[in-house]
User: Which sequence fits this backbone?
């Protein structure tokens, strides 16, 4: 996931960087981790009892794994932006 996200962000920076003033890597990552992997309210609807009534998932572990990978992906993309595209 991280390598794909870096590739995608690099393309966005390259082709839209002259028109975009402010960049955001991920929108509301806490909502994705909590509602998608703890309570299962949002896709991919992973959860476990007592947090939700989903067909699969681990509400104690998966939100932390997801948040960890989102943070690492964000950091990787920020590194690309700062080293290749940021104008000082």
Assistant:
């Amino acid at each position: 996931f991280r390598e794909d996200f870096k590739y995608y962000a690099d393309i966005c920076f390259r082709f839209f960087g002259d028109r975009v003033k402010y960049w955001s890597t991920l929108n509301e990552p806490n909502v994705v981790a909590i509602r998608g992997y703890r309570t299962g309210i949002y896709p991919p609807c992973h959860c476990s009892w007592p947090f939700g009534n989903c067909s699969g998932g681990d509400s104690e572990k998966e939100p932390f794994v997801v948040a960890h990978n989102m943070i690492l992906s964000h950091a990787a993309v920020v590194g690309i932006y700062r080293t290749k595209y940021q104008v000082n």
